[in-house]
Specification:
Helix content is about 35%, strand content about 25%. By secondary structure, the protein is of the alpha+beta class.
Length: about 550
């Protein structure tokens, strides 16, 4: 990897420090000299740029997103592409991801979750109106500012990054938010983004994902076939109408989902203005079955509501406004006012440059105050482990947050030649950290193994003990378990439920669960299966059954 720190792109963007990386690009903090503002610069990695089709898609997506202008979307200021590099310049967002916020808070108050959901839906409505689909809505790609403003990031680009990076497991989080049609391999449309937002809403309201499983395939099948758990059973404080809004957004059937993000925004607004008008009940449908006295009371109650509709609506509106204000105050206290009225602890950032990184990292005083992000760089003029630069700069006075002061360090690898260490059987995350200390660049690939546990290193290429130049690319093969055989799915329709389950397990597959529905077949007979009979599927794949309850009883 070429380091861009300290360089200026197109005589305009001065690269200051590494902020992060994704499946296809490095993200840097930079200064726009022309406009004198801080920005984020996303530079495509060399290995991704080598693929002409990827470069073309990256360029097309970037230009399309640059046309978006909305307060709830991370702005793209500039796009540059030439033979040397591809990069985009974006708004630098000072905040946390929605994922980080939820990890800290757990289930959110329903009014706060709705406040965030409405902003995300408005961002989607704006993008969809210009023909742009995000394709990878999840808490990881949603930024939250201190004032409660939502910023949706990486329209069109996040999904492309996941396609390139899913081999090393970085994109696995997307399966928890994927729309059923995307799981089936169909083309996404705006309703696919709405489904993913519905899943995010479910997670904000409950503090958990709707569908879990041991494998990606198992989770995908649940998105396609399962009904989500009751939100109210998990969090009884959620209003029932809000549960219905969420379930309609994440309906597996595209035709029954909200057909546009604007529809979702409209239902949220109606809910906030008057909960009773979101899903009115049709009382007349049961009049013939009700006791006359009970029906009379119901009619009197409806007349009372109609007579006092204005006053009741005003009271409900005031109550909703009060809850919203209280939720905002709680949010502001946690993220701003608490710091404002609490005794602020500030530190003057030490000068780490020239020190040995291992000694700095081992210093207990530093451990309790700083969080270090390290980028190893080839530099033969300094001893290995020497800190070459830091960001923020030494001497700055910085307030200590609960997560500590984040400091980015560039550290020398020393020699231009490195002997590849033996990282076999290490967890691949620990192994890549070791290899990067030698100035090596890593590409993680999956490999089947009978003896090495899942997520542990099987081998490297070149192998351990080989001398290579620093900055070389090393392939790390990571175990994804024993090789999975492809088996033929048995025909289970017509069998009893007990016999079908036995057949599933004897054929090398796993039984998921059964759902029951009315059928002309004998009760207990299998009338459907999730995997088509006689098709090929991986060993241990889950099979779900549909079982007859007998003919529907006519009233």
């Amino acid at each position: 990897m070429k380091s861009w720190i300290g360089k200026t792109l197109d005589d305009r963007y001065e690269i200051l420090s590494l902020a992060g990386y994704g499946g296809m690009a490095w993200v840097y903090r930079a200064t726009d000299r022309r406009l004198n503002r801080d920005v984020a610069v996303k530079i495509m990695r060399e290995d991704a740029a080598a693929d002409e089709s990827v470069r073309s898609r990256f360029c097309a997506e970037s230009h399309a997103v640059a046309m978006l202008s909305h307060p709830n979307i991370v702005a793209v200021y500039d796009v540059s592409h030439n033979d040397a590099l591809e990069y985009i310049v974006m708004e630098l967002v000072d905040g946390v991801t929605l994922l980080q916020y939820m990890e800290k808070k757990g289930a959110l108050p329903w009014n706060e979750a709705l406040h965030f959901s409405r902003q995300i839906a408005r961002a989607l409505a704006h993008a969809h109106s210009r023909g742009i689909i995000h394709r990878d809505i999840k808490p990881h790609n949603i930024m939250l500012l201190r004032d409660g403003t939502i910023k949706v990031a990486d329209f069109g680009i996040a999904a492309l990054e996941n396609e390139l990076h899913e081999a090393d497991g970085e994109a696995i989080g997307s399966i928890h938010y994927i729309a059923p049609e995307q799981a089936r391999g169909e083309l996404p449309d705006p309703r696919s983004d709405i489904y993913s937002l519905g899943v995010v809403m479910f997670e904000m309201l409950t503090g958990r994902k709707p569908y879990l499983g041991d494998t990606i395939q198992e989770i995908a099948v649940k998105h396609m076939n399962a009904d989500p758990p009751s939100i109210l059973a998990i969090n009884p404080s959620v209003p029932p109408e809000l549960e219905q809004i969420t379930f309609r957004a994440m309906c597996a059937d595209r035709a029954k989902r909200y057909q546009s993000a604007n529809e979702l925004v409209a239902d949220i607004d109606r809910f906030l203005n008057d909960r009773e008008s979101v899903f009115p009940e049709n009382d007349d449908s049961v009049q013939n079955e009700e006791d006359p006295e009970e029906l009379s009371r119901r009619r009197k109650y409806r007349r009372f509501l109609r007579k006092n509709a204005g006053r009741i609506g005003w009271l409900i509106g005031c109550f909703a406004l009060l809850l919203t204000v209280l939720g905002l105050l709680v949010f502001l206290w946690n993220f701003w006012l608490h710091d404002l009225f609490s005794p602020a602890v500030r530190v003057t950032l030490p000068d780490f440059i020239g020190q040995n990184y291992d000694l700095v990292a081992a210093n207990e005083e530093y451990q309790s105050t700083y969080t270090f992000h390290v980028l190893y760089m080839v530099d033969t003029s300094h001893e290995p482990g020497t800190i070459l630069s830091q960001s923020p700069n030494p001497g700055r006075s910085i307030m200590v947050t609960p997560g500590g002061v984040e400091v980015s360090l560039s550290v020398s690898t020393g020699d231009t030649v490195a002997t590849i260490p033996d990282v076999s059987n290490l967890d691949y995350r620990a192994a890549t950290a070791v290899l990067r200390q030698y100035g090596l660049y890593i590409e993680v690939l999956n490999s089947y193994s009978e003896s090495i546990e899942h997520d542990r290193v099987v081998r490297t290429e070149p192998s351990a003990g080989v001398e290579v130049n620093t900055a070389s690319l090393i392939y790390v093969y990571v175990s994804c378990g024993t090789e999975i055989r492809s088996l033929t799915v048995p025909n289970l329709v017509g069998l009893s439920e007990e016999a079908a389950i036995s057949q599933i397990e004897n054929s090398g597959f796993s039984y998921g669960w059964s759902q029951h529905e009315s059928s002309d077949l004998t009760p207990g007979t299998v009338v459907g299966q999730s995997l088509d009979a006689f098709s090929s599927a991986e060993e241990h794949s889950m099979i779900y059954l549909t079982v007859s309850d007998g003919p529907e009883v006519q009233s």
